[in-house]
Amino acid sequence: GIDSMEAGNVFLPEFKIDYNQRFALAPTSDEDAHRPVVHTAQELALVLCEHSVRTLSKNLTLQYRNTLYQLEHHGPGYHPRGAKVTVCELLNGQVVLLYRKRQLPYTIYRKAEGPRRVEDEKTLNNRVDAALLRQSTKPPPRPSPNHPWRQDSAVASARVAALAQSSVS
């Protein structure tokens, strides 16, 4: 039996020959019956993508994969509130909204995070104790050996005077 990918790949050429001998049919006409592809690259991308239908809300928004899409409309006129819109997610991740085979311009609004949970009296003490423990175990910051705070004030003032003289001349 075939129990691994390698064994399957070894068996496949033999299987294809046997399968084609049993089920292949000769064409009734030698003429090529295929139609030429007349679609643009954009149309082909829309055909070969994931389609999903969403209903527009009253404020012309729809939700797809935790993202809010709002249609852009300019001025008065017909707006398809409550209409079914096709959301097309292309292979590159781009999203296209279609209504009656026309692309719709939109703005993306990410969902806001919900409010953070407020600590109650049962867990507040544990959180404060843990924070205090973290703060107490961390050593206080110490300046490096060549930090100006560690230098003698006479040496530091001499250095400042030398810098002042070199900048004047």
Structure overview:
The protein has 169 residues and is α+β, with helices and mostly antiparallel strands. The protein has a domain at 49-110. 35% of the residues lie in helices and 20% in strands. It has a 4-stranded antiparallel β-sheet with strand order 1-4-5-6, with no helix packed on it. A hairpin with a 5-residue loop joins strand 4 and strand 5. The protein is elongated, with a radius of gyration of 36 Å. The model has no long low-confidence stretch (mean pLDDT 86).
In short:
With 169 residues, the protein is an alpha+beta fold.
List keywords for this structure.
169 residues, alpha+beta, four-stranded antiparallel beta sheet, three-stranded antiparallel beta sheet, 20% strand, Transposase
